Amino acid sequence: MSTHQTADAALDELAINTIRTLSIDAIQAANSGHPGTPMAMAPVAYELWQRFLRFDPEDPIWPNRDRFVLSAGHASMLLYSLLHLARVKAVDPDYEALGELAVKLEDIEHFRQLDSKAAGHPEYRWTSGVETTTGPLGQGVATSVGMAIASLWLAAVFNRPGFRLFDFDVYVLAGDGDMMEGVSYEAASLAGHLRLSNLCWIYDNNHVTIDGSTSLTFSDDVATRFIGEGWNVTRVGDANDLELLDRAFELFKHEQERPTLIVVDSHIGYGAPDVQDTAAAHGEPLGEEEVRLAKRSYGWPEDAQFLIPDGVVEHFAAGVGARGRAAREAWEDLFERYRAEHTELAGQIECMQRRALPEGWDRDIPEFPPGDKGVATRAASGKTLNAVARRVPWLVGGAADLTGSTSTGLDFEGAGTFSAADRGGRYLHFGIREHGMTAAVNGLSLSKLRPYGATYLIFSDYAREPIRLSSLMDIPAIWIFTHDSIGLGEDGPTHQPVEQLASLRAMPGLVTIRPCDANEAAEAWRVLMRLRHSPVALVLTRQAVPVLDRQRYAPASGLERGAYVLADPEQGDPELILIGTGSEVALCLSAYEQLTAEGEKVRVVSMPSWELFDLQPREYREQVLPPVVTARVAVEQASTFGWERFVGSDGAIIGMRTFGASAPLKDVQKKFGFTPDAIVEACRRQLELHGRVRG
Ligand SMILES: Cc1ncc(C[n+]2csc(CCOP(=O)(O)OP(=O)(O)O)c2C)c(N)n1
Ligand SMILES: [Mg+2]
Q1: Which pLDDT score is estimated for 694?
Q2: Closest Cα to atom 21 of ligand 1
Q3: Active-site residues: which are they?
Q4: Mutational pocket test of ligand 1: of 137, 204, 214, 275, the residue with most ligand atoms within 8 Å of the beta carbon
Q5: Contact in structure between 209 and 236 (CB atoms under 8 Å)
Q6: Measured from the CB, is residue 74 less than 6 Å from ligand 1?
Q7: Is the CB of 241 within 6 Å of ligand 1?
Q8: Rounded (to 5) percent helix, strand, coil in the chain
């Protein structure tokens, strides 16, 4: 006899309707939210959680838990209802269990209100049990690819005979919006190519989006599309049919070769007679009368609010709760035995989970000898990356088909390439999929690997949403962006970034670092690897830049503080400050040498990171940029936007005010005024202007 013909059927129904009505009531109380999809997909999410998901509500960060991602983040109440009913416990940012519920009933009653754990969309690190932040459609599905890669990688690296430590599955609930977003194409294509058979997307095929019927906008044959991308596709004709859902999930569990797409036909706003199957069910509360009618159709007390009938919580505890607990306890026993036999590997797993670094991780960071011939900062970074990766076994990553150009290949013995044939490879060829890559890197980071993703700085625009989410989620993803300015030369204005640096700096929480030479690039790795809760954008040159003589100028370790004094007048206080970043620091130093020879008192500040500088105490910041010195020139081959902050409204900014041009480097730099002579000239004007002001 199958599960659903037993007495459990009534409890199933009760639990499903509890999810539905909690969602309805919360959205009605908030007078904001999306009721239709929780109402329709409650049985699907319920069946998955109750009968398949290996997830222990007592320990929502247990490393081998199955992941559930609500890519349709607007249906957040579906997830909050599950978290509440399954009694998922809260965990703090230091990964300590707090003993209280991740989502309390009062959070649900205050859905979408300030400080409620039931925020508008599911937010990682705000609400325990939320595996990744979703809301921007397409991000959940794309992030899940990184999680699925992580599971297979962890298994390949850590599992040993008799020790199946890692084998978690990744489930995603997605909607029409996810399927329409381009990033789902990139993600599905990559997942199919890599044969991620532990990945299951559930597509809520309800034919409705905000504007109305999908007949307005979407005629794809989604099943055929996914078959074409190498997926196993199955269909459930009715979202309320738990038997069929079971079969589909079983099919997924048995699939060894391909990722699985389950196309589920559902009725948005299920049970609400006047709005079911219409866009009205998507974006607004039902209204009191329609709420009553919906509750009546479920056989629910019409006036009850936030009702959790007796037995529902116990039912979840006996299902997902008991199964999850048993699985987690068995895993912990297994891990203890593993520790005895494979002590070093066990130590690595624990280190990763805390986002800590193994001892001696920075021992091989290179030092580059000074020289005018120079080294591209991308090359210096690549060398340093390899030196660090050798000592941090879970540092993995790749580029969007620009491995050589971004110098992000891992070339040491045994590094390997992740593929369908080699699940333990450290390098990932993401293909020309910047958006998909970046979201997948977020998924790897959420799985506690230390990942990087690389492309040209100009294409960070293609990856912007997942970069933003990495910052919103406080995860230490490493973004490597090379070809960082017009200095890339001949490729021309389509490839020459102008406004990208300013826009990355505008992103809260993201640390941007643009090293000036090979040793600052090496130093950047020393700093970024220690960040546990911030993503970094490492911005690097294509072209060689001189390696500064650190006997003559200050040491590169100053990078740690974001900005530091590189050179000062031989005698006396500076009367002018010259600030540069990246490749322009060498130009600033040439100008400095010339001005110093003429008897001017000039300071040069290297400012690789605005954000790291902002973190310094005021005292230090004023030491580097003394307020009395108002004659200031900033030089950066990027948009001038924002530099007023450091040079003041009367300072000079030598930067970009237009797009670049296609020509050899020297010609481009001359055309746009990035020469020592132009800098000297600007300095003279500043000294004159501010001298006059002072006088
Ligand atoms: C990238 C992005 N664009 C637009 C939106 C705004 N938005 C939220 S839900 C939605 C419609 C989603 O339709 P579907 O995925 O079919 O969800 P359903 O209404 O069926 O639940 C839109 C356009 C968004 N959240 N993210
Ligand atoms: Mg839809």
Answers
A1: 47
A2: 37
A3: 434
A4: 137
A5: no
A6: yes
A7: no
A8: 45, 15, 40
Its sign, for the CA torsion 461, 466, 469, 475, is negative
Does 216 contact ligand 1 (Cβ within 6 A)? no
Distance 177 CA to ligand 1 centre (A): 5
Residue 209 in contact with ligand 1 by CB distance below 6 A = yes
Long-range contacts of 282-287 (CB under 8 A, 24+ apart): 282/34, 282/36, 282/37, 282/74, 282/208, 282/209, 282/210, 283/34, 283/210, 285/27, 285/28, 285/30, 285/31, 285/32, 285/33, 285/35, 286/24, 286/27, 286/28, 286/35, 287/28
Query: 284 alpha carbon to ligand 1 midpoint, in Å?
Result: 13
DSSP string, 287-323: -HHHHHHHHHHTT--TT--S---TTHHHHHIIIIIHH
Ligand 1 pocket residue status of 239, Cβ below 6 Å: no
The 10s digit of each residue's pLDDT in 619-674 is 999 999 999 999 999 999 999 999 999 999 999 999 999 999 999 999 999 999 99
457: Cβ–Cβ under 8 A, 6 or more apart, which residues? 481, 482, 483, 484, 485, 497, 500, 501, 539
Atom of ligand 1 nearest to the CA of 34: 21
Rg (CA), the chain: 28
Mean pLDDT across 199-227 = 98
Closest ligand relative to 177 C-alpha: 1
Q: Give the three-state DSSP class for 181.
A: coil
pLDDT in tens, 120-164: 999 999 999 999 999 999 999 999 999 999 999 999 999 999 999
| Residues whose CB falls within 8 Å of the CB of residue 673, separated by 6 or more in sequence, listed in order | 654
pLDDT of 363 reads: 98
Quick one: tokens of 531?
Answer: 């960040």
Instruction: Ligand 1, residue 204: give the atom nearest the CA.
Output: 20
Q: Is the model's pLDDT at 695 over the cut of 60?
A: no
Q: Is 206 in the pocket of ligand 1 (CB under 6 A)?
A: yes
Centre of ligand 1 from the C-alpha of residue 54, in Å: 28
The pTM of the full predicted model, rounded to 2 decimals, is 0.98
Q: How far apart are CA 85 and CA 104, in angstroms?
A: 9
Ramachandran category for residue 53: left, alpha or beta (phi over 0 → left; psi -120 to 50 → alpha): beta
Largest CA-CA distance found in the chain, in angstroms, rounded: 96
Query: Which residues have C-beta within 8 Å of that of residue 602, sequence separation ≥ 6?
Result: 567, 569, 574, 575, 576, 577, 578, 591, 592, 595, 596, 683
CA 81 to chain centre: 25
Q: Is the CB of 277 under 6 A from ligand 1?
A: no
Q: What is the dihedral of CA 224, 226, 227, 229, to 10 degrees?
A: 130
pLDDT (tens digit per residue) in 356-373: 999 999 999 999 999 999
Which ligand 1 atom is the nearest neighbour of the CA of 74? 9
SS3 50: helix
Residue whose pair of structure tokens reads 């037993």 in the numeric block:
6
Q: How close is the Cα of 651 to the center of ligand 1, in Å?
A: 46
| Cα(252) to centroid(ligand 2), Å | 23
**Is pLDDT at 4 greater than 90 in this prediction?**
no
Query: Is residue 18 over pLDDT 90?
Result: yes
